[in-house]
Amino acid sequence: MCKVFAGQDPEGYRLVNRSVRIGGHSTSIQLEATFWTLLDEIAQGQGMTASKFLSLYDEALEINGHIPNFASMLRTTCALYLRDRRPRDGEAEGLKSKAA
Prior knowledge:
Helix content: 40-55%
Mean pLDDT: 90
Shape: globular
Largest sheet: 2 strands, antiparallel
Strand content: 15-25%
Distance between the termini: 27 Å
Structural class: alpha+beta
Low-confidence stretches: none
Number of helices: 5
Radius of gyration: 17 Å
Number of strands: 2
Strand order of the largest sheet: 1-2
Order of helices and strands: EEHHHHH
């Protein structure tokens, strides 16, 4: 059985709504609990709260022109964050040999 897929805790994909203020407007964003946990971690790593991190929407809007699906952008942000934390191929081999 694949624990990453079939064996995961259902709590991780429970939908959670958070009210946030973006660009001076209050809005609600619905994401799975796991994504909120990651966004909190990303924000903390940047020295800010998740609310402050989400307010960077204006900066992203300035760079990209428009953001057609903000929730999808947040999920992609989490995926990129996790991808960048993975050891590179050569680093993974070095870690394996150190552990042996």
